[in-house]
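Hi V.,

You were right to ask for the full record rather than a summary. Here it is.
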Amino acid sequence: MSSFLTFMTLLVMGLVAIVLVRGLVNMAKGGSGNTSNKLMQLRVLLQAIAIVLIMLTLWITGGGR
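Predicted structure:
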């Protein structure tokens, strides 16, 4: 179970990085402000999911005890 959670955490963290880069590229190209806003909202949601998964993984594995 912890391997699955670790994999899911890494996957979501990768998605956060991808969305962040897409947002930066959109901003650098002078893209739509609406698109930048949607990417920011998606990034915040993915970061929240990543934090929950990290905490769940630490709780299940004993948190390094």
